[in-house]
Structure formats: structure tokens, C-alpha cells
Write a structure and sequence with these properties.
1% strand; nucleus; THO complex subunit 2
């Protein structure tokens, strides 16, 4: 036989002959060339140069095809003018004419076909490698694997291997599959769409492999091969299939065996890269977008079913393109959310999974800003996507792991915007709402059991959340995301302020903090109500690990641990009941107390590490842990809420019976449902009642060991407020109510060393700093807390019998308390009813002063927060007419100033102003709110005014400054000084070391100057001499001062303001009722003389009551300076003060 090169030349000459236009190369020539190549008689490289067209021409043709496809795609998605349409038509005609002239055969493809027919894969592969990707298989003649359409009732058949021994052997193992078959599929690419049967076979092989994944030795290599085939072949092929839902479900059968990370990577490649790799895919993408636009333009609530079917049909082949467009529309038009969600019911499982990926990709889009341009609110597109997430994931069985992991990763990166998504998902899927705008009825319902919460605790009755809640719970447990999400949210609260909040607007920082906190409360509530006891205890570490190791804030750590303690106590209680069977109530209570001791003792030991050792000198760890571990469910049963919901169900049953339109079987079902619910609620109420009785008995046994009070009672109250009351009262609305009720409970239990009066005084007397440091939602909660505290005080204030029953003879209302071991020999007095009313008036005045101060600062946060707080406490404050008028005046001024500047403040102020006016009818003059004696009776001895058993002494002069008052506080501790002047009402609370709550006295202008010049640490002799000089000055100028006294009683800030706005100031004074008559100088002298006589006795008493902790003069001076700053507004209607001294 001749040499190979000669054979090549002869074959080349033959091929050259058929390269003219309209010539057709005979198949026999291709077959001969293929056979010679297969038997290695000629070399492919030698023959290849004789074949036409050239490789460069093939590449050019491929590029031209892609550009034409892109041009078609561009025309489909853009508006084309009529003139342009005519030009395009002419170009199309020219192209058709060119096509009529048949080009010469593609001889390279002809040879390739012949090689494949005889089974020479090696040479066929070499030819395909010279061409662009998928170029060869895109031509109909190439029989790599092709079956047109799917024959009806197609069945598998045995395929016999080619008789050619050099052809690839049939694959018998997964390794054989990897060696030959996968490379063939790679060349086939998207054109596998022509053969659905082969498509299904490949997928089923993949399923078989995934089942044996951990048995196979080459598992990683094979897994990557299957992923590559899915990326390069299966997904592009399904894009070219004509709406084949069966293939979509078949593909999901394989994909669901992959972790979501692998699936999402495949979807990302499919969406962002695959469609640009082939001309057919470019066209398909454009057609899908055009069709999606057509459907979305016509989608409404009325045609959801028809549009849904069209969306389903389109999504079977190209879900990524369709969902990308739909999500872009939803981000612009949030009213599309409801119809879009309803229209997605015709999707396949694969499409739902792709939708989850598309949502996450849209959320993570780096080109989109998550803040609006004003930098104060979250962008509307993010809010729309969050709403869509909640609705879609609740309604359809979509895997949540990817979305939850995305939120977790964002929190790890210190970004809290996306918590909005978690909030919406939990709200929709679990039915747990978070809102601070709860009505009192809803809040009451939230203190009951789970059934009462579901029925009466939320605005919307979200039913049928059992399945979706279970799905959410399973995902969190399977992917171990429950605790990490909780811890990250708890840490991120402070991160919002200190890490994220550097350059952000204060309003946005507050909003993000609230969102983070609310989502934590909502998510923690979901875990507590849905996780089993074992799951919860297994996942939540002990309190000391939470705080010290994970750096979780204490309030959040106890919030997460609280359900665990409740579960453990109930479990232990059930164990003890089973161990010793006794039905007596007393035995049950003792077992419950024993269960509590066993569970809580390790907690008491753990909390010691949370605070410095000196804290435990006053508060016992037992008291601290008890406060943080209980809830409103443990303290009281909301009987009225249970009764209200039961009555609603009875009305519902009656309405069902009377409705003739409801079918009988449906009537029966509804009645059974309502009756069962009614029984559940009644059973739940009974169960809670028994639980509350057990808890109260436990607290009664514990209370004697709660407070040690090694230092002063003031220090004890300070620690209680700082570590317990204030952190928890702003945690949630229910916690706000709990804090107020806990204080009342500690008082009712007659807890030793707990001064109820001082606690209330500290809460009401210094709200400025607390209000100023709150976020918007915290202000709602703080206002609710103050309202509950005021409710208790108002109940005692309004009825003498109630006060004597609930306060008299209670240790919390003793007016002398001494540090342990320091007995001054004075008898402890109870605060009588009239003096308590004076104290309450003083609290109302202090609230007014703080409110006016916040309103006058001009600061956005101060004004917004105080308006929110005032709105919340409106049922209980203001009750005094002149205080209400003062508030009304300031709020009216805010309305005028903020109308055009800050609309949100204007809306708040207008809302409060309107409600305040409606409350005016319930306000009373000051003399009705507390007893004010007439000037004629002002000389009555103090002992007669104060009732039997009183040790009262005359009140101090109105001219005392803060320093003088503080000095007298030391001198007169242990006494209750009754009202001795016509317009006196304020109460002053101090302690044995002089650290009292905010003190209030009237200030005279000249005397204020004199007192400021005095040294704070002056000796008693100097002070007495100064006082005598002052009395002489007063006698000399008494008439002038009496005439001027009314003017000087106005607050200092108002006096300064009067210089700039004289007219406005006069109006304010008139409205606030500031003009009080001057006191006769005769009475003033009598009081001062009696006071100077008893000066020596009081000094001796003060010496015996001195605190064991010495105070430096500089510290006292600094405290007095701060007090002078706070007391810039004096009471407009008080010229003396009742002093309630507590050591």
C-alpha cells in the first residue's frame, strides 16, 4: 500500500473537488477517510489541512451567530421605532437572499459524523477540540446522541455495543462513567435537550451515585464530575426544553441530594454565565424576559389563576431569568407581593429552590443601597423583599437554610439591615408579632398561657402556623443556627451603636438597634415556645458562660435562659410528685419549692461572677436570680383576659348557630372548634392559677434573705434599679409591666430592708437621663413601665382605706431606716396618708419638670422620647390642673415650632396635645389632689397637723438653697415634717448619708447668690451665724420680699426666657398657675424662731444618725452642684417641703 502522506494527498484532492458552491461531498468519501483514520493508515493532522472551511472561518461564523442572537435579544427588550423596523426588514431580506445561495459543505463536520458512526471517538474528539464549544453538536447531522421528541410510552431497551473493538466500551462502573461518558456529555452540552430520555438516564445515574457516595472510593472526584455535568449539560439543556415539568422534577430528585451550597453555586452559574455561552441560549433568555414582562404587566388579584399558570409554564425551563425579572418588579412595586405569591402555586420543587437562591442574590446585591438617600430609614426595596420572603416561605415548602445562613453571615460581618428578613420570616411562619403598640387588653393576654397569647395577644389572628413553625424549627436545629443567631443578635445590639453607628444618622442607628432587639425578642420567643425541653436545654449554655464567654449582655442572657429554668423546674417538680405521691396542696407546694431550690442553686452560684463582689453586699444572688428568672406568667393570672376570650368564643358559637347560610356539617365543625378552644382556655387558666399560687408561696419563703443592706437603703435601691429594674423594664412591653408588678409584690410581701417609698421616688424623680438615652421603642416600654408604677401610686393616693390596708404597717413605708447596727434611738414612723399625698404631688411635679426640660432642649431625641413617654402615662398623669396646663403650653409651642421642620415630631406633639385636652375633664385643682391648709391655720403646731403618734417638726424656710437643704437633711434625719404653709406640698426623700432622691425647694434670688458664695464644707457654727444674719436681713426687708416673692417663684429657666420673650413668658406663667400669694412675714418669723430653738437638738440627732461611710467635702460639693443644675425649675406652687428621711 502507498505511503500515508500520498493517501492524504489523494483524499485531499478529492475533498478539494467538492469545495465549490452548490456542491455536495459524497458520504462514501467521508466514510473512507474515517476508516483510514480509524486504522491509523493516515494521520488526522495531514488530512485536516485539506478540509474546508478553515478554522478561522468557523470561529468567525460562531461569533457572528452569537452577535446576531444578541442583536435579536436586544430588539426584544427595547422599544423599536417604525423607521428602524423598516430598515431591519430590508436587512433580513438581504440575508435570506444570501442564504438561498447554498454554501459548500462543511467537510470537517462531515468527517466528524463519519468518525462517530464507526466509533472512532479519539479522532472525533480531536476534531471537536479544534472548534468553538458546542459548535459541532449544534449541527443536525452530528449523531453524538440524538432522538427527536419523546415517543409515546417510550420504554428502555438493551443497547448492543459497536462491533468495532476500538470503540469505547459500555460503562459498567461509576469510574467507567467518569472516564468516557462524562467527556462525551461535555461536548454535547445544552443539546442534550433533544433527548429527554438520555437526560433522565443521566439524572438517575446521579441519584444512584449519591446514594453510594460514602461507599465509593473516588467519591470527591466523581462528585465534582457530576456537579460539572449538572452545570455544563443538564441545566443548559433544561433551558432549551419546551416546558417539561417532568424533567424539572426529575432534576430536583438529584439536586435535593446536594447540600444547598452546591445547588446555589450551580444556580449562580446557570443565571449569570450559561446564557451567554451559546446563541440559542442568548435567544431563549431574551424570549423569556419578553414573556415575563407580558405576564407581569397583566398580573392582578383577579387573574391570579390564569397568570399563575403562565408563570408556571415559563418557569419550568428558565426559572432564574423569570424570577430575576419578577423580583426586580417587586422591589419597585410592593403592591405586587400578594398576587405574585398567590401565582407561584404552579411551580415545581426545583423552581421553588431556584426562587430561594434568586431572593438571596437580590438581597446581597452590592450595587443596591440598603438605606434611603436621607440616611435615616431602610430602603423600600429591602422592606419589599423581606415581606415577600415571609409570605413565600410560609406558603410554599421552600428550604430555609440558605436564607438563614445568609442572615447569620451578615450578622457575623457586623451588618444588621438584613435582620428585617428574619423578623418577617418568623412573624409569618410562626405567627409571633413584635410591636410596642399593643393595647392593654393584648398586653394582658400576653401574660397568660400559649393559648391565650395566640387568641388575644396579636393584632392579626395568624392561624395554621403549625406546619410552617415546624419547618422553621427543623431547619434551625438541623443546621445548628438557633443559638448562633441568638448570640449574634444579642452582641449586634451594641455593635449597631458602637461599630455600625459611627457615620450613620442617629435616627437610623436607633431604628437598627430597635430592629435588632425586637428580632431577638421575637426569635427567642419562637425558640422558647417551639423547641422541646431537651432541645432547648441542650443548646443554651449556663448564664455565666453566656455572659463571660460569649459576652452576651445580661438582659439578653437571662431572656434566653429563662425558659430553660422554667422547663427544668417543672420537670423536677413532676419527678418529685411521682416519687412521693401526695395530693395535699401543702405537699405540692413544698415539692415545688424543693424543685426550685435544686434548679436555681447552681444559677445563684453562677450569677456571682457577673458583677463585682460589693454588689452582693446589698442584693443577694438569690434575689437577683429570682428577679431575672420570673415572668408575668408567674406573678398574676389575667382572669379578665381569659374571661374576655371565652365570651368572644361564646358569641362566635351563637353567631354560627343563627347563621342560616352556613352548611350543617360546617356549622358542626366550627362549633366543635370553638368549644374545644373554650375548654382549652379554661383549663389553661386553672393551670396558671395553681402555678401562681406555688410561686407566691416560694417568694414568701425566700423574701427574708433577699436584701442584706450592709450599706444604706439608698445604695440598696440604687443597685436594684441599676442591675435589675432599669435594664429589664425597657427589654419588652411585658417586662415593663413585670418590673412594676414586681416592685409592688416585693412591697406586699413585706420584704425586710426594701424601702418602697424610696424606690418609687428614685423612679419618678430623675427620668431625664433615662428618657434621653432610650431609642424610640425603648421609650414606649419605659412609658408603659412608668404608667404601671403610677397606676399603683394613684390607687394608693385616691383612697385612704386602700392606702391604710396596703401601705400602713408595711416596712416599705417606714420613714426611718438605718444601716444595720446603727440605731439612733428614734422610733420608726410610718408615712401617714396626707403626707403620702404630698409625696405623690411632688412626684407629679418632678415628672412635669423633667418633661418641660426635655421639650425645651430642642433636641430631636429628647422631644420624641418624652412625647412617647407622656402619651403612654396619660391615663395616670397629669392629674393636677396647673401641671397639665404647663405641659399643654409647652407641647403647643412644639407644635408651632416643628410644623414645617420635623413632621414626625409635629405629628407626635399634635397627637399628644389632642389626647391631653380630652383628659382635662379628669384633672383636679392642686388643693384637691393633696390637702393644702389655709394661711390662717398655718401656725397650728406640727404635732397636731400630723396626727397622733407623729414626731413632726416645723418645715424649713422657703429661702433655703440646695446646700442648706442638704445640711438640714443631715440634721433632721428620722423625722417626718408636715406641711406648715398654705401652698406647700413637695416631699423630700433623703438617706442617712445624705444621698437622697432629687430634692425640691423654692429659691429666693438674693439668698441663692449668698448661698453659692458659701463654702460647702463650712462648720455648724458658721452655718448658724449665717442663718442669724439672714433672719436679720429678712426682718429688715420683709415687705419688699413679700411683694416680690410671687415673681421669684417662677422657674429659673422661665425667668431667663422672660428677658428675651417677655410676652410669651407671661402667658406661660399664667397658664401654669405660677402666681401664688406671698406668705405673711409674721408666720415666717415664727417658723424661723422655732427652728433656731430646736437647732441644737437636731444637730445631736444628726450626729447619731451619721452614715458609717464618710463623705468627702468635694464629693458633697459636686453632688450639690449637680442638684442645683437639675433643680433649675423650682416648683411654682410650693413654699415648703415635707421631708421623709430614711437612713
Amino acid at each position: 500500500m502507498c505511503e500515508p502522506l500520498t493517501l492524504c494527498h489523494i483524499l485531499g484532492f478529492k475533498f478539494k473537488f467538492y469545495q465549490e458552491p452548490n456542491e455536495e461531498t459524497p458520504k462514501s468519501l467521508y466514510h473512507i477517510a474515517a476508516a483510514l483514520l480509524h486504522h491509523n493508515l493516515i494521520e488526522l493532522e495531514d488530512l485536516y489541512v485539506h478540509l474546508m472551511p478553515l478554522d478561522a472561518a468557523i470561529v468567525e461564523e460562531h461569533k457572528r451567530d452569537i452577535s446576531e442572537a444578541k442583536q435579536i435579544a436586544r430588539k426584544l427588550v427595547m422599544v423599536v421605532l417604525p423607521s428602524e423596523k423598516n430598515e431591519d426588514k430590508e436587512k433580513d431580506k438581504e440575508k435570506e437572499e444570501e442564504k438561498n445561495e447554498k454554501p459548500p459543505d462543511n467537510q470537517k463536520l462531515g468527517l466528524l459524523e463519519a468518525l462517530l458512526r464507526i466509533g472512532d471517538w479519539h479522532h472525533a474528539q480531536s476534531i471537536m477540540d479544534q472548534m468553538p464549544s458546542f459548535y459541532a453538536t449544534s449541527h443536525k447531522a452530528i449523531p453524538l446522541y440524538r432522538r427527536a421528541g419523546l415517543p409515546k410510552g417510550a420504554r428502555g431497551c438493551v443497547l448492543h455495543p459497536l462491533r468495532n473493538k476500538r470503540a469505547p466500551r459500555p460503562a459498567e462502573t461509576f469510574e467507567d462513567l467518569r472516564r468516557d461518558t462524562f467527556s462525551m456529555l461535555g461536548y454535547l452540552g445544552p443539546h442534550l435537550s433533544h433527548d429527554p430520555i438520555l437526560f433522565a438516564k443521566i439524572i438517575r445515574l446521579g441519584k444512584g451515585f449519591m446514594k453510594e457516595l460514602f461507599v465509593c472510593s473516588l467519591q470527591d472526584t466523581l462528585l465534582s464530575c457530576f456537579l460539572s455535568i449538572a452545570d455544563q449539560v443538564l441545566l443548559p439543556s433544561i433551558s432549551l426544553m419546551e416546558c417539561n415539568a417532568c424533567m424539572s422534577e426529575e432534576l430536583w430528585g438529584l439536586f435535593k441530594l446536594f447540600p444547598y451550597q452546591h445547588r446555589y453555586r450551580l444556580y449562580g452559574q446557570w443565571k449569570n454565565e450559561t446564557y451567554s455561552s451559546h446563541p440559542l441560549l442568548v435567544k431563549v433568555k431574551a424570549q423569556t424576559v419578553e414573556r415575563a414582562k407580558y405576564i407581569m404587566k397583566r398580573l392582578t388579584k383577579e387573574n391570579v389563576k390564569q397568570s399563575g399558570r403562565q408563570i408556571g409554564k415559563l418557569s419550568h425551563s428558565n426559572p432564574t431569568i423569570l424570577f430575576d425579572y419578577m423580583l426586580s418588579q417587586i422591589q419597585w412595586y410592593d403592591n405586587l407581593i400578594v398576587p405574585v405569591v398567590d401565582s407561584l402555586k404552579y411551580l415545581t420543587s426545583l423552581n421553588y429552590d431556584v426562587l430561594a437562591y434568586c431572593i438571596i442574590e437580590a438581597l446581597a446585591n452590592p450595587e443596591k443601597e440598603k438605606m434611603k438617600h436621607d440616611d435615616t430609614t431602610i430602603s423600600s426595596w429591602l422592606q419589599s423583599l423581606a415581606s415577600l420572603c415571609g409570605a413565600v416561605f410560609r406558603k410554599y415548602p421552600i428550604e430555609l437554610a440558605g436564607l438563614l445562613q445568609y442572615v447569620t453571615n451578615q450578622l457575623k460581618a457586623g451588618k444588621s439591615f438584613d435582620l428585617l428578613i428574619l423578623k418577617e420570616v418568623v412573624q409569618k411562619m410562626a405567627g409571633i408579632e413584635i410591636t410596642d403598640e399593643m393595647t392593654s387588653e393584648q398586653l394582658e393576654a400576653m401574660t397568660g398561657g400559649e393559648q391565650l397569647k395566640a387568641e388575644g395577644g396579636y393584632f392579626g389572628q395568624i392561624r395554621n402556623t403549625k406546619k410552617s413553625s415546624q419547618r422553621l424549627k427543623d431547619v434551625l436545629l438541623d443546621h445548628e443556627l438557633a443559638l448562633p443567631l441568638c448570640l449574634l443578635m444579642a452582641q449586634q445590639r451594641n455593635g449597631v451603636v458602637f461599630l455600625e453607628g459611627g457615620e450613620k444618622h442617629l435616627k437610623l442607628v436607633g431604628h437598627l438597634y430597635d430592629q435588632c432587639h425586637d428580632t431577638l425578642v421575637q426569635f427567642g420567643g419562637f425558640l422558647a415556645s417551639n423547641l422541646s425541653t431537651e432541645d432547648y436545654i441542650k443548646r443554651v449554655p449556663s448564664i455565666d458562660i453566656l455572659c463571660n464567654q460569649f459576652h452576651t449582655p445580661h438582659d439578653a442572657a437571662f431572656f434566653l435562659s429563662r425558659p430553660m429554668y422554667a422547663h427544668q423546674i417543672l420537670s423536677k417538680y413532676d419527678e418529685l410528685k411521682k416519687a412521693e405521691k401526695g395530693n395535699k396542696q401543702q405537699q405540692k407546694v413544698h415539692k415545688y419549692v424543693a424543685a426550685c431550690e435544686q434548679v436555681m442553686t447552681p444559677v445563684h452560684e453562677a450569677v456571682v461572677s457577673l458583677h463585682p463582689a460589693r454588689v452582693w453586699d446589698d442584693l443577694r444572688p438569690q434575689f437577683y436570680a429570682t428577679f431575672w428568672s420570673l415572668t408575668m406568667y408567674d406573678l398574676a393570672v389575667p382572669h379578665s383576659a381569659y374571661e374576655r376570650e371565652v365570651n368572644k368564643l361564646k358569641v362566635q358559637i351563637k353567631a354560627i348557630e343563627e347563621n342560616p347560610e352556613i352548611p350543617l356539617n360546617k356549622k358542626k365543625k366550627e362549633k366543635e372548634r370553638c368549644t374545644a378552644l373554650q375548654e382549652k382556655l379554661q383549663e389553661e387558666e386553672k393551670k396558671q392559677l395553681e402555678h401562681v399560687q406555688r410561686v407566691l408561696h416560694r417568694l414568701k419563703l425566700e423574701k427574708d434573705n433577699w436584701l442584706l443592706a450592709k450599706s444604706t437603703k439608698n445604695e440598696t435601691i440604687t443597685k436594684f434599679l441599676q442591675l435589675c429594674l432599669f435594664p429589664r423594664c425597657i427589654f419588652s412591653s411585658i417586662d415593663a409591666v413585670y418590673c412594676a408588678r414586681f416592685v409592688e409584690l416585693v412591697h406586699q410581701q413585706k420584704t425586710p430592708n426594701f424601702c418602697t417609698l424610696l424606690c418609687y421616688d428614685r423612679v419618678f424623680s430623675a427620668i431625664i437621663y433615662t428618657v434621653a438615652s432610650c431609642t424610640e421603642n425603648e421609650s414606649h416600654r419605659y412609658g408603659r413601665f412608668l404608667c404601671c408604677m403610677l397606676e399603683t401610686v394613684t390607687r394608693w393616693h385616691s383612697d385612704r382605706a386602700t392606702y391604710e390596708k396596703e401601705c400602713v404597717n408595711y416596712p416599705g413605708f417606714l420613714t426611718i431606716f438605718r444601716a444595720t447596727g446603727f440605731d439612733g434611738g428614734n422610733k420608726a414612723d410610718q408615712l401617714d396618708y396626707e403626707n403620702f399625698r404630698h409625696v405623690v404631688h411632688k412626684w407629679h411635679y418632678m415628672l412635669t419638670k423633667a418633661s418641660v426640660h426635655c421639650l425645651e432642649t430642642g433636641d430631636y431625641t429628647h422631644i420624641r422620647n418624652i412625647l412617647i413617654v407622656l402619651t403612654k402615662i396619660l391615663p395616670c398623669y397629669p392629674k393636677v390642673l396647673n401641671l397639665g396646663q404647663a405641659l399643654e403650653c409647652r407641647v403647643h409651642k412644639i407644635c408651632l415650632e416643628e410644623k414645617d421642620k420635623r413632621p414626625d415630631l409635629y405629628a407626635l406633639a399634635m397627637g399628644y396635645s389632642g389626647r391631653l385636652k380630652s383628659q382635662k375633664v379628669h384633672m383636679v385643682p392642686e388643693n384637691e389632689f393633696h390637702h393644702k391648709e389655709q394661711p390662717a391655720r398655718s401656725a397650728t403646731p406640727a404635732s397636731q397637723q400630723n396626727g397622733p403618734g407623729s414626731t413632726g417638726k416645723p418645715a424649713t424656710s422657703t429661702s433655703k438653697t440646695d446646700e442648706g437643704t442638704s445640711e438640714d437633711g443631715d440634721k433632721s434625719q428620722g423625722t417626718t415634717k408636715p406641711v406648715n404653709k398654705a401652698n406647700s406640698a413637695a416631699a423630700k426623700v433623703t438617706t442617712s448619708n445624705g444621698n437622697g432622691a432629687l430634692n425640691r425647694t423654692q429659691h429666693d434670688g438674693k439668698e441663692k447668690k449668698e448661698k453659692k458664695e458659701k463654702t460647702p464644707g463650712s462648720t455648724p457654727e458658721t452655718k448658724a451665724e449665717n442663718r442669724r444674719e439672714k433672719q436679720r436681713d429678712e426682718r429688715a426687708g420683709k415687705e419688699e420680699r413679700a411683694a416680690r416673692e410671687g415673681k421669684e417663684k417662677t422657674p429659673k429657666a422661665e425667668r431667663e426666657k422672660a428677658k428675651a420673650e417677655e410676652k410669651s413668658s407671661k402667658d406661660d406663667k399664667a397658664k401654669a398657675g405660677n402666681g401664688e400669694p406671698a406668705e405673711p412675714s409674721r408666720e415666717r418669723e415664727a417658723i424661723k424662731e422655732s427652728k433656731s430653738k430646736e437647732k441644737g437638738d437636731r444637730s445631736a440627732v444628726a450626729g447619731s444618725l451619721k452614715s458609717p461611710v464618710p463623705r468627702s467635702e468635694s464629693a458633697e460639693s459636686e453632688r450639690d452642684h449637680k442638684r442645683r443644675k437639675l433643680d433649675s425649675h423650682s416648683s411654682p406652687s410650693h413654699s415648703s417641703s415635707v421631708k421623709v428621711s430614711m437612713a
